[in-house]
Specification:
- The protein is an alpha/beta fold.
- 42% of the residues lie in helices and 18% in strands.
- An eight-stranded mixed β-sheet has the order 3-4-2-1-5-6-7-8, sandwiched between helices.
- Helix 1 crosses helix 15, helix 2 packs parallel to helix 3 and helix 8 packs across helix 13.
- The chain starts with a strand and ends with a helix.
- The mean pLDDT is 93.
Length: 403
């Protein structure tokens, strides 16, 4: 099969950001399929151009085509929408030139690229798989990003339209199933988020990262990922403030995003000498980065809808054998607690986060045991290879039904 993926936020393994789709594409190629990915030339994480070669074969069987995208992604909500619309249009025209496509795979967010995927699927008479990675626009409404009644109603209409039009709606969390069915999805398949345990080794030496950032002999607690509104990293800063009298503990925030500069200014104003910011790292570098951590933080704002999500970073932390300080309630809490892989803290509560970090620092052997328990759980229940096998079977079934 020739699979066409439309994905503005796609990141290859040598780039910063979520690389789930690159990993899945590699597996599909091993199954004998061909994958063409239309992605943005602007990093969804950093807002900067992320690849000097706009259109190139990434590796045998995988071709990445970079579509023009308006670059001011993180300047404001309006600029962000313009960026989404620019990719929607440019990816459509680029997709028209991709020949002999057997299935079109669209992914949201941004939801606008779903229009591109739907149109291309219909024009190429191929099945349309629509993947829901988070519940947009519901999340945007819940956090107050989307406020205009006109924009809300039009976004809800678009969401329902794409669910109705898709030959299959794929979700990465069981918490999303009822929502997408309730908004019009006819066929829903769950391909959960997970991680590749072979990509991480708990015994890897993270000394180089610790040395480079003056973290020797410290209990390192690391957050890796986007620095955006939903990530609630102000709570991490406040937790660092509570821990300022604990000289052995260091908090590290690695990544980028719209709120990063404001968070850095806030940390400077608070004189947080126990917290550092680090530029984003490519996924290929993350095994060493996570090996330098003693524990890792996963956090979202205390929004009811976020109880439905399966954040990728939690599975990477677990695969790396690191205990999770989890400030997210709901279905991902069930995973972490079932695995015995970390400590749940009430979202939005910096005091509780500080206490959880203190408890792990006081019992490093127990923290290590939690991390290894998490890795074992991922190997058994959330291995990327097994999930990719399930995805391949879904795609192949859709392709056969279209013959």
């Amino acid at each position: 099969m020739h699979i066409l993926l439309i994905h503005q936020a796609f990141a290859a393994l040598d780039e910063a950001g979520g690389t789930r789709h690159h990993e899945l594409a590699r597996f599909l190629v091993k199954r004998g399929h061909q994958v063409t990915i239309i992605a943005s030339q602007v990093s969804y994480l950093t807002g900067k151009e992320n690849n000097p070669k706009p259109n190139h074969p990434a590796e045998p069987g995988i071709t990445i085509l970079r579509a023009y995208t308006y670059t001011a992604l993180h300047r404001s909500f309006i600029h962000r929408v313009v960026s989404f619309l620019s990719f929607m249009l440019s990816s459509f025209f680029l997709g028209l030139g991709v020949r002999k496509v057997d299935l079109v795979w669209g992914t949201s967010p941004p939801i606008f690229q779903g229009i591109t995927a739907w149109l291309l699927a219909r024009l190429k008479r191929a099945p349309f798989l629509f993947e829901v990675r988070d519940l947009w626009p519901a999340f945007a409404i819940a956090v107050g990003v989307l406020r205009s009644k006109i924009l809300i109603s039009s976004s809800l209409w678009l969401e329902s339209f794409l669910y109705h039009q898709a030959d299959c709606v794929m979700v990465n969390s069981p918490g999303y199933i009822d929502h997408v069915r309730g908004h019009g999805a006819r066929q829903v398949e769950l391909i959960q988020n997970g991680a590749d345990p072979h990509m991480f080794d708990p015994a890897v030496d993270g000394h180089s990262f610790r040395r480079d950032h003056n973290l020797q002999d410290k209990f390192v607690v690391l957050y890796a990922g986007a620095h955006g509104m939903s990530n609630d990293l102000e709570v991490v800063l406040q937790a660092a403030n509570v821990l300022r009298k604990e000289p052995a503990i260091r908090l590290v925030l690695i990544g980028d995003g719209k709120e990063k500069s404001a968070l850095q200014a806030r940390a400077k104003d608070m004189n947080l000498t126990n917290l550092i910011f680090v530029p984003p790292a490519a996924k290929a570098e993350m095994p060493v980065v996570l090996a330098a951590a003693d524990a890792c933080i996963a956090i979202l704002k205390p929004v009811e809808l976020y109880k439905t999500t399966y954040p990728n970073k939690v599975f990477d932390y677990m695969a790396a054998g690191r205990p999770v300080v989890l400030a997210i309630d709901g279905v991902i809490r069930q995973v972490v607690e079932s695995a015995g892989a970390g400590i749940f803290v009430k979202p939005g509560d910096p005091q509780a986060m500080a206490q959880a970090i203190q408890s792990l620092a006081l019992e490093p052997q127990k923290a290590s045991q939690m991390g290894l328990a998490g890795r074992s759980y991922v190997e058994k229940h959330f291995s990327r290879a097994e999930l990719a096998e399930k995805l391949a079977l879904l795609l192949e079934t859709m392709g056969r039904e279209n013959d």
